Amino acid sequence: MEPLLKIEKLVSHIGLFTILHDVNIEINKGEAVVILGRNGVGKTTLLKAIMGLVKSKSGTLEFENKNIIERPTYEIARKGIGYVPEDYGVFDLLSVEENIKIAISKKTTSIEDKIAYIFDLFPDLKIAYKRSASTLSGGQRQMLSISKVLVNENKLMLVDEPSKGLAPIIVERLARALREISKTTTVLLVEQNFALACAVGSRYYIIDEGRTVKNGKVQDLVKDSNLQKKYLGVT
Amino acid sequence: MDIFLMLLINGLAEGALIFLMASGLSIILGLMGVVNFSHGTLFLWGGYLFVWAYTNSNSFILGIASAVIGTFILGALLEVLFVRKTYGKVTAQILITLGLMIVFTDLVRLIWGATPLVVARPDFLAGAWRFGGAVIVHYRIFLIAVGITVAIGIQLLLTKTKIGMIIRAGVQRSDMVEALGINIKIYFTLVFTGGAALAGLGGALFAPLVGGISSGAGMSNQVLAFIVVVIGGMGSFIGSAIGSVFLGLMGALIAWYVPQLAIVANVTLMAIVLTFKPSGLFGLAVKK
Ligand SMILES: Nc1ncnc2c1ncn2[C@@H]1O[C@H](COP(=O)(O)OP(=O)(O)OP(=O)(O)O)[C@@H](O)[C@H]1O
Ligand SMILES: [Mg+2]
């Protein structure tokens, strides 16, 4: 079976700086894969490169067997890739409702059900629905950011550190939500919260200095404290 | 009291004209990040197209329509042929829009000559009411009405339509709008040409107010519009509306009571706003 997303020898740069030097990742349909690595190794840049928000110089970036390097971001998104960025990407000038409405793609059906599902998952958003998004707390922004992707039937969901800045109880709820989502959608999750990463992902890749240096099953990584220490700084 | 009323009308009419320029300039800057120095040229072209069409056809409506449609097309050409190639490159934008300003201002001189063109107000707007020491010019009331209508129209477009939603979102984060599968470039073109047409309308309405148009009119009005953008906060439609009214009223008061301060006042106002609120009165605190 061909992978849903295939990344080979990817080199990407921001301005004059090469940030990704050699990234190799394959994700099959239905999988939940986590990207791990210390601060500043290029995890966020990788997700941006997939979305076309960061330019790639060489290598392969294929989604459903089609090259997506050099494609504009909106075309990549329309192929069915949802992106939850590290800094939430919530539109402050819009209400919570508008933030969700603007995200609904033309292909999406049964919108009412999707919104009901979101309210069920994040009751906070139901309460704040008519409010300006600028009034949301950090955690609520994260919920909104994820919801904007959940209203559509995506083939692949890219999620960047959803646990950042969230209270442990919300992280737990998030873990449940992501596990739930990963039953129906392929998920690529960047996460430094090791517990959350383990709860959601079945396979992992470790990035170090812009290179994928290790990959395997999450359950093996849990047992391998040397590897954790070497690349993740987990003690 | 009658003098006060007159100054109020004068100021609001002035504000309405500034607003037609500043609203487009502000949204273009906020959404596209483009400091558009060619905006004043579109105002100028609006003025000349209006005078040309109005003088030849004797129809005020046809004159306005020519200005709006002409500058809409001109704006589209500028965006597609030049401005589009400079997104994200601020220096290139400044150079290209300044260059366009110079070239298209000279083109006006080439086509219509260097001497100012004269135009009268149409008969149905030519009158004035007099009472006490005050003169209320009908044409100014008309300008205020147009300004209010346009402001309400844009506000409805921005708040009640999907297009408006995308523009408001794009002002803050155009990259995230793209990541939702929306081709923001289309909206860039739309906003740029819409802003061009508004500037053109401003130029068209300006000419009968002052009795004619000369090739320097674009630049002086552009400066006022830039001051409004700084005061109101870039990308803020409400800010540009309030800033324009404020600048217009202040201009009318100062011109009446202390005309020697006319030039200093605007710049001082801008400096004060920048000192206490660098993002402008209604600017976004955070920018991409
Ligand atoms: N605009 C930029 N110009 C130059 N270097 C940049 C720029 N943006 C990011 N970088 C660098 O690229 C590297 C990778 O950044 P990235 O955000 O992808 O890291 P990350 O793995 O997501 O880190 P974190 O875990 O802290 O989020 C960092 O060293 C960062 O300093
Ligand atoms: Mg990151």
Description:
The complex is a heterodimer of chains A (235) and B (288). Helices cover 37% and strands 27% of the residues of chain A. Chain A has 235 residues and is α/β, with parallel strands linked by helices. In chain A, strands 6-7-8-3-9-10 form a six-stranded mixed β-sheet, sandwiched between helices. Chain A is globular and about 45 Å long. The termini of chain A are far apart. The model of chain A has no long low-confidence stretch (mean pLDDT 92). Chain B has 288 residues and is mainly α. Chain B has one domain (2-276): ABC transporter involved in vitamin B12 uptake, BtuC (Orthogonal Bundle). Helices cover 74% and strands 4% of the residues of chain B. Chain B contains ten helices and four strands; from the N terminus they run ααααβββαααβααα. In chain B, strands 1-4 form a two-stranded antiparallel ribbon. In chain B, strands 2-3 form a two-stranded antiparallel sheet. In chain B, a hairpin with a 2-residue loop joins strand 2 and strand 3. Chain B is globular and about 60 Å long. The A-B interface holds A 51, 53, 72-74, 77-78, 83, 85, 89, 91-94, 98, 101-103, 105, 148 and B 162, 165-166, 168-169, 171-173, 175-184, 284, 286. Bound molecules: adenosine-5'-triphosphate and magnesium ion (MG). Magnesium ion is lined by residues 43-44, 86, 161 of chain A.
Write the layout of secondary structure elements.
The complex is a heterodimer of chains A (235) and B (288).
Chain A: E1 5-14, E2 17-27, E3 32-36, H1 43-51, E4 55-63, E5 66-67, H2 73-78, E6 81-84, H3 96-103, H4 111-121, H5 123-127, H6 138-150, E7 156-160, H7 168-182, E8 186-190, H8 194-200, E9 203-208, E10 211-217, H9 218-223, H10 225-232
Parallel strand pairs in A: 3-8, 3-9, 6-7, 7-8
Antiparallel strand pairs in A: 1-2, 1-4, 4-5, 9-10
Chain B: H1 2-32, H2 39-57, H3 60-81, H4 90-112, E1 117-118, E2 128-131, E3 134-137, H5 138-160, H6 162-178, H7 184-210, E4 212-213, H8 217-232, H9 237-257, H10 262-276
Antiparallel strand pairs in B: 1-4, 2-3
Helix pairs in contact in B: 1-5, 1-6, 1-7, 1-8, 1-9, 2-3, 2-4, 2-7, 2-8, 3-7, 5-6, 8-9, 8-10
The complex binds adenosine-5'-triphosphate and magnesium ion (MG).
Residues 14-15, 17, 19, 37, 39-45, 86, 192 of chain A line the site of adenosine-5'-triphosphate (ATP).
